[in-house]
Design goal:
Layout (H helix, E strand, L loop, with lengths): L1 E3 L8 E7 L3 H9 L7 E6 L6 E5 L2 E5 L1 H4 L2 E5 L3
Antiparallel strand pairs: 1-6, 2-3, 2-6, 3-4, 4-5
């Protein structure tokens, strides 16, 4: 089921489906490793403030607004 990254709980493992938004934010997120098909794990998320994720071996903090633009599909917990 496709869901914005910001809506998922800590510990979720997901796959990037697409990024929505303008060219600038799409380019920035792709440069950070959020490419379609890439696996992402949510390391910290308490549904307020930024979330911490692991992508391509790096830890990345994202604001909730930006994380809402990353559409993912769950791989299981």
């Amino acid at each position: 089921m496709e869901t914005p990254l910001a809506m998922l709980p800590q510990g979720s493992s997901v796959k990037v489906i697409r990024i929505v938004g303008g060219k600038g934010i799409i380019r920035r997120l792709i440069e950070m490793g959020f490419t379609p098909g890439e696996n992402v794990k949510i390391l910290h998320s308490d549904f307020s403030g930024p979330i911490l994720v692991s992508v391509k071996g790096s830890r990345v903090a994202l604001g909730r607004g930006v994380a809402m633009k990353i559409i993912v599909d769950g791989l299981g917990e």
